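Researcher: Let's do a round of design. I'm pasting the structure tokens now; please hold your answer until I've finished.
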């Protein structure tokens, strides 16, 4: 029982970070209806930015978020303004090809700058854990979950209580109606892509003390982001949060009971079951 409880807690903690990745993709899709295949590469940039700040300036990975997050927001806004914005009304395959191309540019640029060697960000607490009633909990994961919770609550408040947040939600609900009501939908798209990029990079910073860092690491997280987004329901921020935690728990428990090589299989079996019995996602609404 203790093994199950420990794997459950670990899954919830890592699932919180996964949720942050999914929320970023959900915001981008909700506002622009663009499937961003470069999402994992934005996370990868966050990891490398954290690694660079740690090795060159000795800034703690968790503290580096205050630098990485705004920088990646500006970078995401730049990508949307000068690249994504040009294909908003194009065919879906053109949007997909553009985001794939941007992702390849990012990963190959990083490879040229840092080589393809695996990087390890080792801090004094990377292998630390805390004991709670005989259950060992990873300290980096615990801190990551706490930071994720704060960011998620702040994001909910921003979307629900601020004029800009409400404009983003209105644009996501009906882009044309929002434009007719006087909302600058182009500006909301730039902000949404910037937010999504910042959240992905923040997730990268949070997991950097516990993951290998290499230029192609983004591809696996892009896949996870899509699974999380579809599980929760396309465009649902709360659904993405739930989907991220479910994926984290499924991976953790699957790794314990079926072996680490099978944990991805457990995730995709769960994903297929949801697609079969709830195609719109756990909290999504069917579109006609």
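Researcher: That's everything. Go ahead.
Model: Designed sequence:
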């Amino acid at each position: 029982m203790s093994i199950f409880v420990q794997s459950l807690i670990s899954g919830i903690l890592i699932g919180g970070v996964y949720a942050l990745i999914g929320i970023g993709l959900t915001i981008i899709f909700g506002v622009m209806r663009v499937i961003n295949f470069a999402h994992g590469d934005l996370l990868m940039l966050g990891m490398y930015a954290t690694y660079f700040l740690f090795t060159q300036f000795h800034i703690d990975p968790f503290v580096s978020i205050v630098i990485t997050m705004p920088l990646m927001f500006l970078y995401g806004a730049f990508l949307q303004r000068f690249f994504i914005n040009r294909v908003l009304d194009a065919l879906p395959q053109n949007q997909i090809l553009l985001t794939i191309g941007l992702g390849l540019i990012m990963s190959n640029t990083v490879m040229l700058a840092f080589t393809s060697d695996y990087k390890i960000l080792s801090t004094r607490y990377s292998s630390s854990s805390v004991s709670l009633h005989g259950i060992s909990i990873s300290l980096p994961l615990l801190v990551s979950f706490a930071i994720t919770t704060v960011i998620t609550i702040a994001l909910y408040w921003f979307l629900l209580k601020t004029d800009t947040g409400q404009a983003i939600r209105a644009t996501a609900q009906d882009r044309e109606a929002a434009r007719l009501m006087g909302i600058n939908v182009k500006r909301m798209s730039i902000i949404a892509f910037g937010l999504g990029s910042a959240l992905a990079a923040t997730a990268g910073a949070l997991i950097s003390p516990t993951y290998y860092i290499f230029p192609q690491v983004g591809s696996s997280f892009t896949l996870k982001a899509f699974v999380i987004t579809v599980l929760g329901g396309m465009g649902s921020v709360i659904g993405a949060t739930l989907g991220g935690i479910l994926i984290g728990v499924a991976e953790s428990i699957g790794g314990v009971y079926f072996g680490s090589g099978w944990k991805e299989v457990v995730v995709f079996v769960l994903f297929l079951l949801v697609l079969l019995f709830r195609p719109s996602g756990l909290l999504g609404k069917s579109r006609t």
